[in-house]
Specification:
Strand order of the largest sheet: 1-2
Shape: flat
Largest sheet: 2 strands, antiparallel
Helix content: over 70%
Order of helices and strands: HHHHHHHHHHEHHHEHHH
Distance between the termini: 82 Å
Oligomer: single chain
Radius of gyration: 33 Å
Structural class: mainly alpha
């Protein structure tokens, strides 16, 4: 069918806009286009724009009706390219942060999903071998033609039985329907096998798999949050270091306290704006009055979340050394109180 002319014009407008935007990014970044941060999205955009260009050119070449009827391969190419154009929807993922996080979690859960399928397949396969053999025995012993047809339908092969068992735990069919042909002849064995299989698969395995998925998603979310915080802290340091000395003074830090970037950092590490000066002194580990890039970045990341065991051990060690440096007898009790819980470490 012939596409209306307004739709053709709109398609060409979008195609030219996307192409110009891609060429402009290539011109700005040049050789870094495929090596910079987010190069995967650059490659994806290049693929999408390239497919759209080919689609538009091939579609325009189909104007001649004789060409279309004489060369059906062009028609097939156009149909395939138009299917690929659907992936342009994924472009919006890059610009919506919440959707980007969801896609990141889905992609990260693919390995867990793969091993879950393997484990589920092994369970279904073992039960299917047993039930298929049971169905063959019932088919031989039962003279009822209806029962034989039902068994042939449900248990004709191991693969057929596996499909039925998967449908039993996924809502495809009710497991009572699959149990009915076997229950008449082997009630105890068949009912017991189905009850154990359904109970284990739904109450144990699927719930356990759900917990694994939630744990994996939570871990990926924490890793993604840490990476985003690292990028924000590095960007904030470059923004704050207006003098270009590679260090931040309290005056420079005070000038950016009202900015959104600093407020987001305070919220991420659970610090109130009124505690900014205390935070600055805490990050300034060498007491120079300035924060280097290492002090600012690593210190900010260390403050995020609860204290780790290594942090508590270091604090305890420093406290013990402080008491020992006082050299007074009145602190002997404090030293003895700390020593039993101290690890046997010798740090210079």
């Amino acid at each position: 069918d012939k596409v209306p002319q307004p739709y053709v014009v709109i398609e060409w407008i979008f195609c030219l806009v996307f192409t110009f935007e891609l060429l402009l990014r290539i011109f700005v970044h040049r050789t870094k286009f495929l090596h910079m941060s987010g190069w995967q999205w650059n490659l994806f955009d290049s693929l999408v724009v390239g497919l759209q260009l080919i689609d538009q050119v091939v579609t325009t070449a189909r104007v001649d009706a004789s060409t279309v009827t004489s060369n059906l391969s062009i028609v097939r190419v156009v149909r395939v390219l138009r299917l690929f154009r659907i992936i342009r929807i994924l472009r919006v993922v890059h610009f919506i942060s919440d959707m980007n996080k969801i896609v990141y979690l889905v992609i990260g859960a693919v390995p867990t999903f793969f091993w879950t399928l393997i484990l589920l397949w092994l369970l279904i396969y073992m039960v299917s071998v047993f039930l298929t053999q049971l169905g063959v025995d019932v088919q031989r012993e039962d003279p009822d033609e209806k029962t034989k047809k039902d068994i042939e339908k449900m248990y004709s092969s191991v693969s057929q039985t596996m499909m039925g068992l998967f449908q039993c735990i996924s809502g495809g069919i009710d497991w009572h329907e699959m149990l009915a042909p076997l229950r008449h002849r082997q009630p105890v064995v068949s009912v017991s096998a189905f009850a154990i299989y359904v109970a284990f698969a739904q109450l144990v395995m699927l719930n356990l798999v759900t917990g694994v998925f939630v744990q994996a998603a939570q871990k990926l979310k924490e890793e993604d949050t840490d990476e985003q915080l690292l990028r924000k802290v590095c960007k904030l340091f470059l923004m704050t270091d207006t003098s270009g000395t590679g260090a931040i003074s309290w005056k420079e830090f005070e000038n950016v306290l009202h900015t959104k970037e600093v407020q987001d950092l305070f919220q991420a590490i659970d610090v109130q704006p009124s505690q900014a000066e205390c935070l600055f002194r805490l990050l300034d580990t060498d007491g120079s009055g300035e924060l280097t890039a290492e002090e600012f970045v690593l210190g900010s990341l260390r403050l995020r979340g609860p204290a780790k065991a290594i942090d508590l051990a270091i604090l305890q060690q420093d406290t013990l050394r402080y008491y020992e440096s006082l050299g007074s007898a009145e602190y002997t009790d404090h030293i003895q109180a700390f020593r039993p819980s101290m690890p046997d470490t010798h740090v210079a």
